[in-house]
């Protein structure tokens, strides 16, 4: 065996040894023996309440969610924004939103609007007048009730 063959074979082993040490050190450096496991950290964190969903406006390519935070302030938010420091608005659809917590301890939270997409709410109505109940109401008056044309 000549010197060049020895150097070639001898250099392969130290290079592999150095690579193994570097990779092993990075794996050891990733785990801190003095920090508690992630499950203990998640138990110690109190989940912050999510913002309240009050409505959704927009088109299928650009929905915005009206969210009210714990402080009581309301604002329109697009997807991928942070309404507060703890929750990220991941997705906005026509009927709901998906919130993701800033810490990896919580699963994504889906909040949906109640009711139908095409449902409309009428304003609060006052009780019908006595004339409307008796059938003597004039057409065009609020609360007028007609059973047919006379």
Features:
single chain, 150 residues, alpha+beta, 3-stranded antiparallel beta sheet, 3 helices, 6 strands, 27% helix, elongated, disordered C terminus
Describe what you observe in this structure:
- The structure is a single chain.
- The chain is of the alpha+beta class.
- Among the domains are: 3-35; 47-112.
- The protein is 27% helix and 23% strand.
- The protein contains 3 helices and 6 strands; from the N terminus they run ααββββββα.
- A 3-stranded antiparallel β-sheet has the order 1-2-3, with no helix packed on it. A 3-stranded antiparallel β-sheet has the order 4-5-6, with no helix packed on it.
- The protein is elongated and about 75 Å long.
Could you give a quick summary of the protein structure above?
The chain is of the alpha+beta class.
